[in-house]
C-alpha cells in the first residue's frame, strides 16, 4: 500500500505521547489530487480525502474522524505547496479555511496493496490556489510558453511513498506537450481533451515529476525572489586563482550563488550568508582571461563585476582601508557637525551676555 493511504493509527502507536494521542480517532486516509492550470498562471490544487478503517470500511460519516481531519489542514497545505517549491514560505498562495465535504466526489486507493484500486464515494476536499509567478519549478520557454514541473511531494520526502491518483486539468492554459521523470515511470492512464490522469500502484510506476509545456496567455513570470541582499566587494585573479569576496548587506540569512563565466570557464559556488557576513569564495583553476562574476539569489542578479587579466589584487592594507573608509568618513562628518553645533552654541551665549550699548 502506498504512503498516501495514510496510516494515522500506526503514527499514533509510535508516538511517545501515546497517553495524550489515544483520544484521537484511528483511521486510514485515501488521498488523491486534482490539479487545474489556469491561463493567468495560477493553479488550483484540490486534495480529495476519504477516511476508512484498516479493513476498508468507509468512515466518511464519522463525526469524530471528520473533526480530526478538519483540524489537519496545515499538513495538507504543505503537501500542496511542495509540489511547486522547495520553500513553502517563498511562494504565494490562498488556502481554504476549512475542508469542503462533497458527496459527489470519488477517491481511489490501493487498500489491500494488491495493485487494485478501491473506489470510495464522497470526499473531504481541501483547495489551495497557488501563484506560479515565484515558483522555482517554472521555466520560461518564450512566446508565452512555460515549462512547469509538478513534484510528487511525498516521494521527495520519502522514496517509499507516492501519490496514488493525480488528475491534471487545463482551463485557459493550453497544453503543448508533456512528459514525466524518471522516464521508466508509467505514463497517464487516461489522456483526454484538457485532462490527464495518472494511477500509480507502486513507487516504480509513480513519476517523481510531472512536466508540462503550457501556453499561459495571461501570465508574467517574476522569478524566484532573492533570499538575501548581498554585494560583491572584491573580485581578482592571481595566477590561476580567482578570489571573490561577497557580503550580506541585509538583515536576513540565506543562500546566494557566485557564478564565474567567460571563455571556456563556467563555474559556480553556492554560499550561505548570515546577516552582515563576508565570505571569501575561491575558484582555484581559472586560466588568465577576461571574466564576469555574477552574484545571484533566487532568480535575481544582485551584483556583477568584471575581472581583467593583469590587474593586480589589492594589497591587504589597501583592502582594509577600503573597508574602513565609509566608517572613517562617517566619523569625520559626525565630528564636524558636533564642532559646528558647539561653535553656534558659544556664539549664541556671547551674544546674550554682551553689555548694553553706552554702558
Tell me about this structure.
The protein folds into two domains: 6-215, no CATH class; 230-307, Sandwich (Immunoglobulin-like). The radius of gyration is 30 Å and the shape is elongated. The strands form four sheets. Strands 1, 2, 3, 4, 5, 6, 9, 11 and 12 form a nine-stranded mixed beta sheet that branches. It has a four-stranded antiparallel beta sheet with strand order 7-8-13-10, with no helix packed on it. Strands 17-16-19-20 form a four-stranded antiparallel beta sheet, with no helix packed on it. The chain is built from five helices and 20 strands. It has helices at residues 8-14, 18-21, 63-70, 73-81, 316-353; strands at residues 6-7, 28-38, 42-52, 93-95, 100-109, 118-131, 138-142, 145-151, 165-171, 174-181, 190-192, 195-199, 209-215, 230-238, 241-248, 254-262, 265-273, 278-283, 291-297, 300-307. Residues 7-22 have low confidence and may be disordered. It is an alpha+beta fold and 359 residues long. 27% of the residues are buried. Helices cover 18% and strands 42% of the residues.
Radius of gyration, taken over Cα atoms and rounded to an integer in Å = 30 Å
Tell me the β content: 35-45%
Order of helices and strands: EHHEEHHEEEEEEEEEEEEEEEEEH
* Largest sheet report: 9 strands, mixed
Count, helices:
5
Decide which structural class fits the backbone: alpha+beta
Number of DSSP strands?
Answer: 20
Distance between the termini: 109 Å
- Amount of helix: 10-25%
Count of distinct structural domains: 2
Residue stretches low in confidence (pLDDT < 50, at least 5 long) are 7-22
Shape call: elongated
- Average the pLDDT over all residues and give the rounded result: 84
